[in-house]
Amino acid sequence: MDPLVNELKRKLDSLKSSMAQLEEDSPPGIMVAKVGHLTRNVRNGEYDPDHVSIGPYNYHWQIPTQQDKLRSLAVVLSAAEEPSMTVEVYLKELAFLEDKARSYYANTFDGITKHQFVHMLLLDGCYILSRFASFPAKHTAHVAGAARSSAFAASLEDLAVVRDVFFLAENQIPFFVLEKIGELTVSDGKALVGRCIADHALELMKAQRYAVAAPAMVPPELTAPENLLHLLHMHLKPQETDVLLPGRGATGTGNGAADKTVSSVGRWRTATEYSYAGVEFRSQEMSEKGGVRCILDVKLDSGGGTLVVPRLDIDNETWRLLRNLMGLEQRNREAVGSHVTAYCIFMSQLASDRKDVEMLSKRGVIVHAHGNDGEVAQHFADLCKGITFDKSDPNINYLWDTRQKLDKRSRSYRRRWMAWLRRKYFSNPWLAVGLLAAAIGLVCELVQAVYSALSYKQA
Length: 459
Description:
Layout: H1 2-25, H2 37-40, H3 66-79, H4 87-96, H5 98-102, H6 114-132, H7 156-167, H8 175-185, H9 189-207, H10 228-233, H11 271-276, E1 280-284, E2 299-300, E3 306-310, E4 312-314, H12 316-331, H13 333-336, H14 339-350, H15 354-362, E5 366-368, H16 373-382, H17 400-410, H18 413-426, H19 429-458
Parallel strand pairs: 1-3, 4-5
Antiparallel strand pairs: 2-3
């Protein structure tokens, strides 16, 4: 037994040393991790790149060809202000960041050598910057075909690049790598890279109608992204979500939800079920100055009878983006919260049937280009499969209070009866007139019966 005891003690000492080292190194708040198998298996293809592989998780894919990435390197080198900025200088500077860059991944990638890892960071970083950053190129005649401006979104190839580079949780490199390459290239390169990519991300979110502003990118709370998917995630934060801040305990103040006694919260009811309880659905356009700034800004009016849901424009990439954002949150809940996951669970249960999608489409809450409403409903039904989320915890579910109020309303027999009456008789004006006439006739008959009874009694 002694050898076994000594071996376990040695491994425990090594583990303690490793944990102490991690604490000293202050590991990043946001990790790039593989999407869980239960989630990935639902729609496996929505997590894999089709046009460009970025980072170590997809290192083996080698798409596009190395020749394409080499042309991007040439574009960046041609824009360098200092002639001394050669390939060797870039590689040497990135080699100093290798350990830090590796720490941003949940995997160790022992099969990728130091040389290969640095080589990958340089080529992938230059590929991204050649697409999304506007360097003032000095002598690019021989590589002009490789340079792209920020107005590139017209071609299908460029749309595929946007999807692969921005949307995929596993297809990422740390943002500081891009900043370092920019810093080596031009004097204000770090700021230039941050500004160009942030502007492009904002335009992307506006074009897709997901958000109109990014509060985390606005001073005085200027926060740099950890990677490009995180940059998109920073645009999707519902207003008035103090209880959702990372690290907030159940005793926080915020909007009051966390101070209430936490009770179990079941699934959301469908849109049709809420309609039967008298809940109206209303769509609202987003505005930087208005009360709706992103698709997560779901609001219940003070009377509890109208649910305002920002319009969601759905195409094939909507599901990919939402799934990968949830993947980011699943691994980094303490750092980024669970806002997108809470929203996706809400929408997936609200619109899980064809009739629900049809109703929400008529109200302008959902706009889609799919073949039929049933196809959209199936996408919603599959959206959150394999996702881990405690919807009963108000500290991570920003819609907890809304869910409680709607549930209370749905269990009210009086409200359900009134909603049924309005739906059956008052939705058609002629039926309403007929019902009113019948009511008046009934009242007249009652009055006549009373007078007849009184007359008979007096006689």
